Amino acid sequence: MSTTAPRLLVVEGSPRGEASFALALANSVVDAFLAEHPGAEVDRLDVFADLAPFGPAQAEAKMAVIGGEPVPPADTAAWDDVVAVWRRVAAADVLVIAAPIWNHGLPWAVKLLIDTVTQPGLAFDFDPVDGYRGLLGGRRAVVVHTSAVWAPGVAAAFGTDEASPSLRGWLEFVGIDDVREVRLHTTYPTDDLDERVAQAHEDARAAGRAVASDPVTAG
């Protein structure tokens, strides 16, 4: 296990900058973690700006890897970019993922990160007898979910949450089963919004302190 300073990867899953509730809550997680570990390294991954589309070149390279073949020369640069993104995830001890609920699901750029990182021999391997095995275990995650209208227990007319089970399922698939959630539902400007936002930030700080109390060092 590594004895270096813990490393955080902040997945910025909203393009709204300072207007984003999800990004602000993720920052509260990070701030609480840094209060306990001032020397921690923080890598911020803006999935809307930092990722290339997972297109034909990346798909051809992936299929070559699955087939045990060399990556075709024409696809090498694209595959190198995929591996570089995976390395940023693999380097982290703790993932802090801001994932607002969009149209019932994950923002497309968060799904792009999942599709980029989830590669054979990197994020998972497969055995025909035992099935899949995640290769990113030994890490923790704090996931921030926000929604404009949906809230637990509302009628279907107010939307659904397909985002959180999808994201948690992916984390567990790649081996990350220590997952905490911070939620703010809804961000609709009700009379108690300020109170609910304040509580969500307290929940975020508590999550940051919790993962800081015994940080995983994914060596």
Report on this model:
This protein is of the alpha/beta class and 219 residues long. It has a single domain (7-51, 89-213), classed as Flavodoxin domain (Rossmann fold). The protein has helices at 21-36, 56-66, 76-90, 108-117, 163-173, 193-213, and strands at residues 7-12, 41-46, 94-98, 124-127, 131-134, 140-147, 178-185.
Question: How does the SSE layout of this entry go?
Answer:
Blueprint: E1 7-12, H1 21-36, E2 41-46, H2 56-66, H3 76-90, E3 94-98, H4 108-117, E4 124-127, E5 131-134, E6 140-147, H5 163-173, E7 178-185, H6 193-213
Parallel strand pairs: 1-2, 1-3, 3-6, 6-7
Antiparallel strand pairs: 4-5
Helix pairs in contact: 1-6, 2-3
Quick summary:
The chain has about 220 residues and is α/β, with parallel strands linked by helices.
The CATH class label is: Alpha Beta
CATH topology: Rossmann fold
Q: Can you count the helices?
A: 6
For CATH, the homologous superfamily is named as Flavodoxin domain
The overall pLDDT average reads 95
- Which percent range fits the helix content? 25-40%
In whole angstroms, the N-to-C terminal distance is 5 Å
CATH architect. name = 3-Layer(aba) Sandwich
**Poorly predicted runs:** none
Query: How many domain units?
Result: 1
Oligomeric state: single chain
Radius of gyration: 18 Å
**Shape verdict:** globular
**Estimated structural class:** alpha/beta
Give the amount of beta strand, in percent. 15-25%
Sheet having the most strands: 5 strands, parallel
Listing every helix as H and every strand as E from the N terminus to the C terminus, the arrangement reads EHEHHEHEEEHEH
